[in-house]
Amino acid sequence: MITLHHLRIGRSLFTAWLLEEVGAEYQLEVYHRDPATMRAPAALREIHPLGKSPVIEDEDLTLTESNVITAYMLEKFDQQHALHPDRSDLTRWAQYQQWLAYPEGSVFAPLLLKMLTLRSGVEHPVISPFSDIEIKLHFDHIAQQLGDNDYILGDQFSGADFGICYVVSMAQRLGQLKPYPTLQAYLQRCMNRPAFVRAVERAVE
Q: Known CDD domains for this protein (predicted)?
């Protein structure tokens, strides 16, 4: 049985969505942030020393890093390659890997800076302009990649959409998605998927 250590509120909802999409049996261990600091409780550090989420346990294996968890789960449960390409088509596989790594490898940092400056209530003379420029750069890129397609790699949903949907949803919460109607529609399309609805029902308390 897979255990998902799920920190409310955060990225791990999208891991629950992944598990629902692949039909995995799993149990949730739910943690709540300290309302003053928004940090994870000490109990989560007993599972992993960083105290971050998502963390999954699958028998003797403990995994962190969302894109690694996605890759592992799809290798285990998506053996027909409905959600991730086989390496036999190396070009397609490489493009998929790029978009799998891109959200947290490149996009998350400027969004995090924007979130922290908004929380502080003070515009920073260096950080604020930097995050604004980077957010526009990345979301122009994501919107261009999406184009008229339903999902980030075309008309078929793939494992790359878990991370892309996460950063798009984060941008929406930060008020950064108004210039991107196609990304707003993409986010709603992902959130309307039955597996996402099931994940919300199970993981959002």
A: GST_N_GTT1_like (cd03046)
